[in-house]
Amino acid sequence: MNAVRTNPRSPSFSLLRRQSGFTLLEALVLMLVIVILVISIYIGVVYAEKQLLTNYRDRVATMLIAGELEMEYYRHTRSKPFELQTNRQYVLDDRDPEHILWAYMTIQRRVAQESSNEQLLNFVILEGTLKWIDPATQKERMIKMREDYFDI
Known about the structure:
Layout (H helix, E strand, L loop, with lengths): L1 H5 L4 H8 L5 H54 L7 E9 L7 E16 L2 E15 L6 E11 L2
Antiparallel strand pairs: 1-2, 2-3, 3-4
């Protein structure tokens, strides 16, 4: 039995002789596929990071406007006049103290009417707009919110 295993002409040794390793071309193709995969993952991570930052700034802007409109609602329920704003400066992103991102809020007031059950209702529309220049694209971005105040 040992003679069969050590004999170079046995079927198990001929199986090993027929196997070959990777050729240089196959190795290069494999490396190319790995490089493309790594580059794709890198691009995906960079895109996700930019999108995360954009979403963070949009969320902060939304919260700033919502807070100001809530304050106006508080004033309205206490029969105080609205305090409108024109290009009031707010800090939108201060994670890097050397590059603070400023945004500018404007709150405008309009009067409107709506009919309901054959009754004409007067109401006030407050529209808040927060604008800033996105540092990555150098394009203007804005978030708008509207709140209606009915006189009851």
